[in-house]
Amino acid sequence: MNLERRKMLGSTLGVAVAGLLGGTSIAHAAPEDVAARIKELAGEAEVKSGAITLNSPEIAENGNSVPISVSVESPMTDDDYVESVVILAEGNPLPSVATFNFSPASGEAVASTRMRLAKTQNVVAIAKMSNGAVFSDTREVKVTIGGCGG
Amino acid sequence: MINRRDFLQFAAISAATTGFSAGLTKAAAQQSLTQDDLLTFDSKGTLTLLHITDIHAQLMPVYFRPPSENYGVGAFEGIPPHLVGEDFLSHFNLKRGSALAYAHTMVDYVDLARTYGRLGGLDRTATLVNAIRADRGDNNVLLLDGGDTWQGSYTALKTNAADMVECMALLKPDAMVGHWEFTLGSDRVMEIIDNMSYPFLASNIVDTEWEEPVFESTAFYERGGTRVAVIGQAMPYTPIANPRWMFPDWSFGIRAEIMQENVNKARADGADVVVLLSHNGFDVDQKLATVIDGIDVILTGHTHDAVPEALRIGNTLVMSSGSHGKYLGRIDLEVSNGKITDYASTLIPVFSDVIEPDKTMAAKIAEVRAPHEEELQRVIGKTEGLLYRRGNFNGTWDDLICQGMMQERDAELSFSPGFRWGSTNLPGQDITIDDLYNQTAMSYPSVYRLEFSGQRIKEILEDVCDNLFNPDPFFQQGGDMVRVGGMGYTCSPKQVMGSRISNMTLLSTGEPIDPMRNYVVAGWASVNEDVEGPAIYDLMETYIQSEDTINIPRNDAVKIAGMD
Predict the structure, then answer these.
(1) Distances (CA, A) of B153 to A28, B164, B373, B446, B544
(2) Alpha carbon distance B79, B87 (integer Å)
(3) pLDDT (0 to 100) of residue B29
(4) Is the minimum CB–CB distance between B234 and chain A shorter than 8 Å?
(5) Which of B17, B268, B349, B547 is least surrounded, with the fewest CB atoms within 10 Å of its CB?
(6) Handedness of CA A110, A112, A118, A119 (dihedral sign)
(7) What's the complex ipTM?
(8) Is B353 exposed, middle or buried (0-12, 13-18, 19+ CB in 10 A)?
(9) In chain B, what residues touch A67 (CB-CB under 8 Å)?
(10) Cβ separation of B417 and A148 shorter than 8 Å?
(11) Size of interface A-B (CB pairs under 8 A)
């Protein structure tokens, strides 16, 4: 979360896809759809936790623009680097939010973006490593209709 | 694990000499309790932390009835601060009818209120603070203000908090944090801070554009022969619980990872003691204490919980110093070789009748109230019963407000937010403008009149209920359940979101709420911009004047399930 401006600008350029809300008639993605998408990304590899950290607010201040950031531990050498990170939203009409592609020249696998969340849901980040290993991290983001705190 | 000796000592003094309240005259009770008793403390080490929080602009002593319901869920069920009444008394070994029983619970509340009188008053607090500073030495004491200081009274509203800013300047806190402060709008907040002689800290506020810190996160002090870092934390859900449009460029959140970084930085900068001055709420801070390494003391606020001593959670002490100026929290720390080796803590109830007011502060309070004194004293009605706000589901002040909104806006139902601020009126007391604004003084007071479907009403209730009863405290926003006029329902706090609210019934007909039908609803404190309608304090002034004598019937409209 505590990204410096320079890093954030750099990483934002890496956004390849930003599938946000379509028409309201589109049904929301189900967790199974996201699970199928993860399987497709991982292929034969086992999806493990660790290595990747997804940061998001616990409760969105504004569901139309939810800041998230992701970082993956990796030496980022020619032999061992992060190839890509995919962000998926289980409850959005189109679950694919963003794909960040990296190379050893990226230096570090850190990225951030903002996404629209239609409702309270899990957001999943998947990292694909150059050696074929796959890691994931999941965070629930709550989208409220209004608070009465005090 | 917890050293209760000091606290029991004080409890024994007040219990032994006052006994059960019945038959005691006010004079007898007050003779037995003295300013010196309140200041009696078996001090430790050389460093003292003083904590005052959630004053809600109460410069004068108040009656404030503690809640009869304060349910905890998950890991937090049945432990402090989720203890009320007899359970609270037995957990903390307090004698029924004692001064501390009155300060902390609603047991025998009205009788004891007449015996022990009002609590608080910033001039009384100043006396206690000055006495402790004199005793321990100025260079050994840190006074920390946990926020919600600049909102909650007629004079704070009319002066844009200038009254509180001037009075607090005399108390000389070493730092503060915020929540309702932000409802003055970002420009006014910055204007005040620019002229303040102590820092306004917030580790968890960043600008929405670049996510860079807006405020200082940490302040360092050399006190008690040791280096102390104080990290500040604003109410994490301010932009959700309050109108985001009033501070559109600031983003909040718990931001535990930034907190850990700031703790690590403080240690790297040589801090022997790291204090978190927090407006997270008690359960959020109970969890935070377990997920952040290296915080010695959390001074917590927001949820208005008054716990008689600091609780130890792992290696962290958590102190929660109540609200409305009723208490002054104190923790003494013995620090050797950069580590805390002993401590003692207490929450001092500010019994206003036995504490000599500090003259300088009393004069300043009189000065800031003087231009408004006639209006503050203006009587608009009288109450036959007890008027109070605190409670998870309702309180008689909000019952009155819900009645008023339905009547004055010709609505079938009404919503009043689950705020925890607002003083108490005893049976037979007049209701003044001062009293009314203690319940309603805020910067987005319009009373809307809208149609909601039965389905939408259920969604709103479920949403607010999850803010209160989500078993993960990081999803709790603080505050209580929205109060509903004209409708009954059953609440099952331990269920999941979407399944907590059932049996919604329109009280006027006894019929179930129809999910498909629209209902006319009046409510106040909407977080949306450009809400149309009269201000709640104007509407309620009209309503109370027309009723003249207020008598709130017993309210059993909300049933609780699954909490026995």
Answers:
(1) 46, 10, 13, 17, 18
(2) 10
(3) 65
(4) no
(5) B268
(6) positive
(7) 0.85
(8) middle
(9) 211, 251
(10) yes
(11) 90
